[in-house]
Each structure stands twice: as structure tokens, then as C-alpha cells.
Amino acid sequence: MASNSSKENAESFLEAAAAVVPLTWCPHLADSVHVQHERFERLDFESTLCRDCDAKGENWLCLGCGEFRCSRYVKEHAVLHGLHSNEPHPLAVSLADLSCWCYVCDDYVDAPEVYDIRNALHKAKFNGEEMPKRTDYGRIVLEMK
């Protein structure tokens, strides 16, 4: 059984911790996801290069056009493409951790609309293993104190 001080320390830690909670909906989902997930089920992650500079690591897949571009920590071609191209494509999936990011909302997105493409990439990256499917989209969890 935990002592009061242990419980207080844990509660204090949880209050101070900054959790990353992705959006379960974003206004750009309907108009920005155009890639076919089947195209990426056998993607060779090692040979994926940035379309603009041929960078090999930390690339992102544009969900609007299906092209790969490097992250903001390389030469930020994905950011520039997502926000400043002639037809901005705000949603992209990281090939490093398969997270989805909206450049306009400036936030992670974990919505049903991006599950199929993320799952296809997960299968390609992890020898056919399915990505766990989230079932609590839109659920609000309240804790009573």
C-alpha cells in the first residue's frame, strides 16, 4: 500500500507532466487525405528519399499527394510543402514513428481517417504486423476528485 507522500508525489508528477494528446478530428481531414493505403503496404523504408533534397532519414509521407519529404529537423521540406506550396497538403505521416501531423493545426492527429494509411505503413515497417486499432475516438474521460 502506498503512503500518502508517495501518492502525493505521483499526483504532483502527473499534474506537472505534459502529455501529448493527438487530435481525434481535424478540419483538414476531409480535403487532405488522397493517398491509397495499398500503395504503401510494401514500402522499403530504407530507400525512401526526400523528393526535394534526397535526404534519407526522418522523412514524412504527404497524405495529399503521396510524396516523401524531409522533416523540420533536416531541411524542413515537408513543412514547406504542407504549408507553402501552390496547393498546400497539411497532413503527413512520419516514417520514423508513424505519427500523423497537421501543419495547419500544428498538432498530432489520430483519427479514423488516417488509420488505413498508418496501418499500411506499420505493416511495411514491422513485417506485416497490424497496428492496434483505436476504438475510443471522441471519448471524453473525466476523473472525479
How do the strands and helices of this protein lay out in sequence?
Layout: H1 4-16, H2 29-32, E1 59-62, E2 68-70, H3 77-84, E3 91-94, E4 100-102, E5 107-108, H4 115-125
Antiparallel strand pairs: 1-2, 1-3, 3-4, 4-5
Q: Which term fits the overall shape?
A: globular
Overall CATH class: Alpha Beta
Give the spatial strand order of the biggest sheet. 2-1-3-4-5
The biggest beta sheet reads: 5 strands, antiparallel
- What count of domains describes the coordinates? 1
Question: What's the end-to-end separation, in Å?
Answer: 20 Å
Question: What kind of oligomer do you see?
Answer: single chain
Alpha-beta content class: alpha+beta
Radius of gyration: 18 Å
Secondary-structure element pattern, one letter each = HHEEHEEEH
Query: For the residues shown, what is the average pLDDT?
Result: 87
- Helix count equals 4
Q: Which parts are unreliable, with pLDDT below 50 for 5 consecutive residues or more?
A: none
The CATH superfamily turns out to be Zinc/RING finger domain, C3HC4 (zinc finger)
Number of strands: 5
CATH architecture: 2-Layer Sandwich
CATH topology: Herpes Virus-1
The share of residues in helices is 10-25%
Instruction: Report the β-strand fraction as a percent range.
Output: 5-15%
